[in-house]
Amino acid sequence: MGIPEKIISGNIRAVARLIRDIDDNIPEAREVLKELYPYTGKAYVVGITGAPGVGKSTLVDQMVYHLRKAKKTVGVLAVDPTSPFSGGAILGDRIRMQRHSMDEGVFIRSMATRGYFGGLTQSTRSAIDVMDAMGKDYIIVETVGVGQDEIDIVRSAHTTIITLVPGMGDDIQALKAGILEVGDIFVINKADREGVDRTVSDIRLMIEMDEKRYKNGWKPPILTAQAVFDEGIKEILDEIKKHRKYLTSSPERKSMFQHEKARNDLVEMIKDRIVSDVLANIIDSGEFEEALQLIVEKKIDPYTACDNIVLKKLKSG
Amino acid sequence: MNQKRKIRVLVAKPGLDGHDRGSRIIARAYRDAGFEVVYSGLHQTPEEVVQAAIQEDVDMIGLSSLAGAHMYLFPRVLELLKENGADDIVVCGGGIFPGEDIPKLKEAGIKEIFVPGTPLGEVVKWVEENVKPRT
Q1: What whole-number distance in Å separates Cα of residue A245 and Cα of residue A240?
Q2: Rg of the Cα atoms in chain A
Q3: Contacting residues of B for A24, CB less than 8 Å apart
Q4: CA dist., res. B116 & res. B97, Å (int)
Q5: pLDDT tens readout for residues B55-107
Q6: How many CB atoms lie within 10 A of CB A122?
Q7: pLDDT top residue among A310 and B90
Q8: Other CB atoms closer than 10 Å to residue A170's CB: what's the count?
Q9: CATH architecture for the domain at A38-249
Q10: Which value does ipTM take for this structure?
Q11: What is the pLDDT of residues A64-123, one digit of tens each?
């Protein structure tokens, strides 16, 4: 049996290894992904994001529990940051999801953000495709949600959940123009804490002010939860279902989503390819170091250096 | 294409043992050495450890035990890895063990045992020399 067949039949080892190869940028993995593509598109992808410590992993754990009770299979992709100094990472999201590790209907994978060359967006999307092809009904992607890369990841999900905790106060103002705008559902976790009403009304205000965007469309609901006590989880899943219905109920909306997703995927893929091919290539050949030296010595300006390199590369194809 | 394998390690505490300071420090040292460390937390059964190792496609499992059940737990992990066709994963252990158990554990297939007082640098160096990322 070839690798694609193994993936489609749900072979855990094959899936795990392919995701590793994707992460490590092994060219053969791309070939497998090409063959898997026709088998993707069936899973429903939910993105969960929020600051460290707001309870994302616990929330995911409870959602998995409820989805499993409803006989749905689930893939979880948990992204944690890579240390910019050592390049290493501690991936600790499994701690909260331990109880599902013996369940064959659940596949959990931790992934590190790696660095600039890591192509996080690309590798997470490919990992989602692999879990999709292996037949998972739901795929939940968890990220810390800082930086454009991570915003892009959650944007490629069907439903994006933003998790907050009470007492963030003015921080919400600062977040407003960033990741908060991509939320389809807002969850205020640890709702037993003081200030929950204030946080809810802050978010509500933000949403109401964006009335134009939500008119005739999906207006993000704001839910409260206490994930450790399994409170509010059912309601979150109900809203996901509603949002799913919303996305799929009109053919135009459905095709718009797919079009948008395909566009984002392709843009990312091309960007990634250029970075890994052109940049890696000129670093290997020493051209990069050469240009750097000239810039430092002020013999050339960085704009010209960039033009020289890029135009030369483009011409050589 | 820019490709580079990173060493992936699972740090796990099997059994009913709540002493996780050591395993956390080890996890941190591995991170600082540039490894990707999956930390799965306390109170794991050997079955759970092996499933996590397979799903995460790690090159090595570091087992920590300070509660005395290592003579059952460690060999059981090796046995399950074999059953799952994943015995290419290197397993080492750290914690408190009676001296006479160490050769027995190694004979069972635990690649190395680290006891209290081992400098972190030595543990990291051992991994770098004995664990190669999968090709």
Answers
A1: 9
A2: 21
A3: 3-6, 133
A4: 10
A5: 999 999 999 999 999 999 999 999 999 999 999 999 999 999 999 999 999 99
A6: 22
A7: B90
A8: 8
A9: 3-Layer(aba) Sandwich (3.40)
A10: 0.91
A11: 999 999 999 999 999 988 888 888 999 988 999 989 989 999 999 999 988 655 567 788
Domains of chain B, residue spans: 8-130
The total of other beta-carbon atoms located within 10 Å of residue A39's CB is 16
Handedness of CA A74, A80, A82, A88 (dihedral sign): negative
> Cβ–Cβ of B2/A13 closer than 8 Å?
no
pLDDT digits (tens, 9 = 90+) for A123-157: 888 999 999 999 999 999 998 766 666 777 777 79
Provide the β-strand partners of residue A188: A164, A224
* Residue A236 in this model has a pLDDT that exceeds 50: yes
Ranking A223-227, A308-312, B66-70 by mean pLDDT, the lowest is A308-312
CA distance B135 to A221: 47
Cα–Cα nearest to B75, from B11, B15, B22:
B15
CA A86 to chain centre: 23
Band the pLDDT of A208: cuts 50, 70, 90.
Answer: confident
CB within 8 Å: A276 and B31: no
Q: Are A89 and B36 in contact (CB under 8 A)?
A: yes
B1, B44, B54: residue with CB nearest A27: B1
Please give the Cα distance from A148 to A125 (Å, whole number): 15
CATH of domain B8-130: 3.40.50.280
Q: Which residues of B85-107 are buried (b: 16+ CB within 10 A; e: fewer)?
A: ebeebbbbbbbebeeeebeebee
How is B6-34 classified by DSSP, letter by letter? --EEEEE-BSS----HHHHHHHHHHHHTT
Share of chain A above pLDDT 70, in %: 92
Contact yes or no for A88 and B1 at CB 8 A: no
Look-up: residue for tokens 């009470």? A166
Q: What is the DSSP letter of B93?
A: E
Of all residues in chain A, the one with the smallest CA distance to B23 is A90
